[in-house]
Design the sequence.
């Protein structure tokens, strides 16, 4: 038998053999990712100032209640809509099902802030709905009923444009895992509704909770919708405190509280999911044999799914196309070309950098079988769950400190240098993108490595190639599809990203996302249409690629 | 001094309750073919992985031709051991042709010598016309021979073969087994292969090791051990 001591010796040996350039770089990257966030958490305990007392006494209650209300209601409604759609699409056959099956993912192509001002543009007094009712039918609506710029409006927008997180995860689960359960329940004489309530809901709990958690984290990350609708949540409060009151310390405290809220949500996901996992004991996955609906049932199923698709994608997109046709002469020009290029270059450059870092972290976690290396890869996930507002303030604090430390170096190079160099450059923005999105890339690369397995790596090692040469000659070629999908996912997310870009971009640097938000903010919603459509088109292409193409490949 | 000296090799997988390999000791003469026979889960493959340097033993040592591969103070990574290995499912690089797969391990040779060696091993395994093919364009038996050629090409000091016949159908198994013996004896290379099939051991091995629960329970001439 092996004693405890020799197990420890073995661990140390493993660690020793895995200390190489991959390990060192991986550690550096992960520490860089952790630094700004750790910096914020530490500040929860710092001495509060007078401003904080004011915030605590008069404002904090509202920040908390608004944030909790918007987040939980959006999560709840998204869970109901996402799960019901997943159920209808996986279990029944009805007209248009083939198209709607992936059409229902498309609301994800429209970032909530774009949806927010598009809906406001459609529903306000001069919008298409009220104008039509007034001019054609002589109906005047009480403005209270169509005022979308409210807490309820924000919940409506988040629900409609984020439910696909619940829908996709739950649908994948239902399609792959539950055919035998559903068939068994049917054979036992249960009605479809009973099967849904007593079999499907309990077994897909983990999937639903997982999807809902993603929705809630996205709501907490949002800055565009709540800022545009004028709702004070933590996100907007952090910036109000920071820029409005000029009080970084209190802003950091708010950020830390928001971070704790995020941790509470992710913890409760674990608790709610229980011991259940997404996967099942049986490995034999059989597709569900769907029930063909006829008559009223078919009308209801098609009607419900098509209504959600229309509200979440078709109507806002058509409206944006209409506005784009009205405004393209005014909007398109050199300036527009510049911000398109800014968006593309920033997204391409950052995505490439992020994928490279992800490859280092994932490869180290694979080749070194130590717990520490695997923890390294898991730590990157932290960034994805932390809201943009928190990352932004964490990054700025670190970069200002860094600039202060490097000032002597800047002066050596240029005696007239301003004090803040990195803080006013694109480097800071790229760094923030890295913290926020590296988890997506690490996940993609890891799944690529998992698919390939370790045998080619080992074969190469026994043929005399070291880890690094093996990586370039063998691994890299074999994980190319995973690298491409990781790159695409990060690229699209950066194209859509608003809060970090809005806050951390250098002066006078605009992207499609910031410009469309600015137009909308300046009551020029129609002018925001073209840049919004480009963002939607890029996201649409990526969703098409991942859902439609992947679906076909599976078949 | 024996050509290969394995002393007290002990290993436990992470989170496992017991040692997978317990105190494994074996001496091998140069040019000898050793068969390790055992049921699945007996630790056969793990022994090969420990010798190749793909796992780190918690105790014990491996020396080949007087050179220490692993002991209490030394651990040579797989790429520095000069040991060839044929994997159970061959692990041929799918993005490389037969030629590129075989040349992969010859990166330390100069161009002319590399081509020469390629032709030599291709002749040895009877695949000279197949060098431009990709692995997926070959039959199971041909893939196995490419894997063997690839492992032999760098002239390893020791060749390890993990269940070399398990992916072949019965008729082919017998033919390839005979071929393999001719090739290995022709190349005069010291080899260890693991198998769960007694016929394999009988046909190919000079000596057979019986492994049970990570322990060596018997060693000797196949005719005696496999009576």
Sequence:
């Amino acid at each position: 038998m092996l004693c405890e001591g020799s197990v420890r010796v073995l661990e140390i040996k493993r660690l020793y053999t895995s200390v190489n350039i991959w390990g060192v770089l991986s550690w550096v990257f992960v520490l860089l990712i952790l630094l700004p966030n750790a910096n914020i958490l530490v500040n929860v305990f710092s001495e509060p100032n007078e401003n904080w007392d004011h915030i605590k006494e008069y404002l904090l209650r509202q920040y908390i209640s608004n944030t909790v209300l918007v987040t939980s209601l959006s999560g709840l409604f998204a869970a109901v809509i996402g799960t019901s759609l997943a159920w209808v699409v996986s279990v029944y056959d009805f007209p248009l099902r083939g198209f709607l099956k992936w059409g229902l993912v498309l609301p994800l192509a429209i970032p909530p802030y774009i949806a927010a001002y598009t809906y406001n543009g459609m529903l306000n007094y001069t919008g298409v709905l009220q104008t039509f009712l007034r001019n054609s039918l002589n109906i005047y609506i009480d403005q209270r009923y169509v005022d979308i710029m409210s807490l309820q409006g924000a919940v409506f927008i988040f629900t409609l444009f984020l439910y696909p997180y619940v829908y996709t995860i739950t649908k994948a689960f239902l399609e792959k895992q539950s055919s035998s359960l559903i068939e068994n329940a049917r054979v036992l004489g249960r009605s479809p509704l009973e099967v849904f309530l007593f079999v499907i809901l309990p077994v897909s709990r983990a999937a639903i909770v997982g999807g809902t958690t993603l929705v809630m984290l996205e709501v907490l990350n949002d800055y565009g919708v709540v800022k545009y609708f004028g709702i004070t949540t933590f996100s907007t409060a952090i910036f109000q405190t920071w820029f409005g009151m000029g009080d970084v310390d209190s802003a950091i405290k708010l950020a830390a509280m928001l971070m704790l809220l995020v941790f509470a949500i992710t913890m409760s996901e674990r608790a709610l999911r229980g011991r259940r996992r997404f996967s099942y004991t049986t490995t034999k996955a059989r597709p569900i044999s769907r029930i063909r609906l006829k008559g009223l049932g078919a009308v209801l199923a098609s009607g419900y799914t098509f209504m959600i698709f229309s509200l979440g994608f078709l109507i806002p997109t058509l409206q944006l196309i209409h506005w784009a046709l009205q405004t393209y002469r005014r909007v398109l020009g050199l300036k527009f070309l510049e911000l398109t290029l800014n968006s593309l270059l920033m997204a391409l450059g950052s995505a490439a950098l992020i994928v490279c870092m992800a490859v280092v972290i994932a490869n180290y976690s694979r080749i070194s079988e130590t717990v520490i290396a695997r923890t390294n890869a898991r730590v990157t996930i932290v960034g994805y769950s932390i809201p943009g507002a928190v990352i932004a303030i964490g990054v700025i604090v670190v970069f200002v400190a860094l600039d202060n430390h490097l000032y002597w170096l800047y002066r050596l190079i240029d005696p007239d240098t301003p004090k803040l160099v990195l803080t006013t450059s694109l480097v800071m923005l790229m760094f923030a993108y890295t913290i926020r999105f590296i988890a997506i890339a690490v996940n993609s690369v890891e799944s690529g490595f998992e698919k390939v397995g370790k045998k080619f790596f080992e074969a190469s090692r026994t043929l005399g190639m070291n880890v690094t040469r093996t990586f370039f000659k063998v691994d890299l070629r074999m994980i190319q599809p995973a690298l491409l999908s990781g790159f695409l996912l990060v690229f699209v997310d950066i194209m859509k990203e608003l809060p970090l870009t809005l806050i951390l971009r250098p002066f006078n640097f605009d992207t499609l996302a910031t410009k469309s938000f600015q137009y909308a903010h300046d009551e020029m919603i129609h002018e925001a249409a073209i840049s919004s459509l480009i963002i939607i088109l890029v996201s649409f292409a990526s969703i098409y690629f991942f859902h439609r193409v992947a679906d076909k490949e599976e078949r | 001094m024996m050509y290969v000296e394995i002393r007290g090799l002990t290993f436990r997988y992470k989170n496992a309750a017991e040692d997978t390999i317990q105190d494994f000791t074996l001496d091998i003469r140069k040019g000898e073919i050793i068969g390790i026979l055992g049921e699945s889960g007996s630790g056969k493959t793990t022994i090969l992985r420990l010798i190749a340097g793909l796992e780190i033993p918690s105790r014990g040592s491996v020396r080949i031709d007087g050179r220490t591969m692993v002991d209490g103070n030394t651990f040579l990574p797989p790429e520095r051991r000069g040991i060839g290995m044929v994997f159970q499912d061959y692990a041929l690089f799918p993005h490389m042709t037969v030629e590129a797969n075989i040349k992969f391990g010859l990166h330390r040779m100069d161009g002319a010598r590399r081509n020469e060696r390629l032709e030599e091993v291709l002749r040895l395994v009877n695949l000279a016309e197949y060098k431009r093919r990709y692995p997926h364009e070959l039959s199971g038996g041909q893939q196995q021979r490419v894997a063997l050629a690839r492992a032999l090409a760098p002239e390893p000091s020791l060749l390890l073969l993990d269940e070399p016949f398990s992916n072949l159908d019965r008729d082919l198994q017998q033919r390839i087994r005979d071929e393999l013996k001719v090739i290995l004896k022709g190349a005069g290379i010291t080899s260890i292969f693991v198998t769960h099939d007694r016929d394999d051991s009988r046909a190919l091995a000079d000596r057979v090791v019986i492994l049970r629960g990570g322990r060596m329970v018997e060693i000797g001439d196949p005719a005696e051990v496999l009576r």
About this structure: The longest strand of chain B covers residues 4-11. The longest helix of chain B spans residues 170-187. The interface with chain A takes residues 10, 12, 14, 18-19, 52-54, 56, 58-59, 75, 77-79, 81-85, 87, 89, 91-95, 104-105, 107-108, 150-151, 154 of chain B (CB under 8 Å). DSSP finds seven helices and ten strands in chain B.
